[in-house]
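User: Structure tokens for this complex, please. No commentary.
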Amino acid sequence: MTELIAFALMMGLAALSLLASRFAARGADATARARLIERINDVLPQTQCGRCTFAGCRPYATALAEGSADINQCPPGGDSTAEVLAALLGRPPKRVDPEFGIMPSVPMVAWIDEPACIGCTKCIQACPVDAIVGASRYMHTVIAADCTGCELCIPPCPVDCIEMRPASASITEVIEAARFRALPG
Amino acid sequence: MLQGNSARGGLRLEAHKERSTREPIAQASAPALAVLPLDQHAGHPAMPIVAIGDRVAIGQAIARPTGDVSAWLHAPVSGEVVGIEPRPSVTRDCMPAPSIVIASDARETRHPPERTIQDFLAVDPLELREWIGRGGIVGLGGAAFPISAKLATGAQAAELALLINGAECEPYISCDEMLMRERADDVLHGARILMHALQAREGIIALEDDAPLAAESLRAALAKIEDDRIRIQIVPTIYPSGGERQLIASVFGREVPFAGLPPDIGILCHNVSTAAAVARWVRDGEPVVSRVVTITGDGVERARNLEARLGTPVAQLIAECAGYTPRVERLLMGGTMMGMPLSTDEVAVVKGTNCIVAASAMDLQPRQPEMPCIRCGNCSEVCPAYLLPQQLHLNARAMDLAGLERYGLMDCIECGCCDYVCPSQIPLVARFREAKPRLAEHLRARDDARDSRLRYESRAARLQRLEAEQRARLEEKRRQARRKES
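Assistant:
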């Protein structure tokens, strides 16, 4: 009888410890995955442009960690980011698929044709990085230094007054502008 | 005499300063056409405030600063603005840079000074700092960093020591030595103005032990003003002891943190010429419109120091030193270690031009074809920035940006010591100069990504909070409606 009780106790203990370890493993898995997502997110360019078909860089990082996205979906990051992702995830390297978008040869930022702006705030709501300032029925403008060039503000504009322009207006252009301003008359 | 022992590396080089220090500083004649690049200081280029056809007088402001790190520019000659256009410039390797061009009318009309301050101690330090910034003063040691930006960082330190850098360590350059010999009063006056503007507790003027006449002249000037907060310190002549970080290490025995600036350890460093320019501006109302330039090298007949107006073509300065010798091979702006080769003598003197070397074969280190690195380690022994140039070289060849960052490429001061000792004749500094902008671009992109990520995350959090608040408000309304019903 005593042997039976002892046996039952041991079985119970074994079952308990098994359960506990299962839970612990699940917890460890979750933290490891969160850490992986963080590491993937760190190498993404943070343009939040959604060209990868996900809602932003972190969602794409999550999908990559889950294995539901490929490493070649980030045009702003380019081939170098794809390479880092391949190394990070232990997958064969790949070039970025042009289907997800082709980046311009020079970095571009959004530019609002201010006289045409009607102040609808639609672009402000679309900007994922708060790089557009303005208020309802007041002119809006893009903070060029903060613009990531995601182009998400362009489709919502009802008057088509936003376009992409090269990010660094060359010094010559700035001086040109100043010269015309300084010209007499 | 060696204070502390943290200054490491470096080389004992032949100074080649005797030829150019035989004669006193002479005034160069004013150029007929002054060309003033708008980007002749570090940071953002200046913006013209004159138009073509405007008449200007000496010392009149012609361009204003844009942004925090930028400087004013003043007319060095009187005459007419004949162009605001791209002109070949030393700031861009003799490629065109936007410049203001003034045709001199040879009348030398002076713009009346807006303000002169005799009793600077009566002026509020903040006001004084702002006023100093108006004088178009930049680091005249060669880096041309706008003084306003430097003073702003220095003023944030609680306890500050002012270090006046007279350690002109690079071979051939002698403009600071001549300036200390002849204008020690200006240097000390400028130092005292800067000390008041920064509320510094002490001032140290450091110079190398191979300039005894300059030290003598400074001591005599110091005895006249009897300011016991200022002392003169002699440092050993080891290139590059005049580098800002190297000089701080040998004077104070302390290191500037690698990602930090001298004010982080309570020190601000200015060149002696900069201090003299501060004195001229504050006391006499004379902005930076000229500077002392050393014209030397075996390729020029009469090596000497000239006080040249900004915008003077190099060719004119050479002509005033009796022209080239037949042995001339190359033209350098700066010394022979860090100087930039000039492809033409049609470029103009800028605020950062300390020296022109017309070099013959005698002045230049003979260079053989490059050979593979044999890992001798000589380069890391002489590196004053404690870097490992051979590792940097390997990473630069592969353009491995992560590796370059890890080995501290951005801390390279481009002094050229590694080049000098390399037995395989590898042009290390040229490689590093090439890799630096690419690494800087990479680091900038990474910083931008971090910033936009922060903005994205805070926006997401804000949207979530707003939605929650909206939901709570709706809930509250419903509850009130229900209460009314019941």
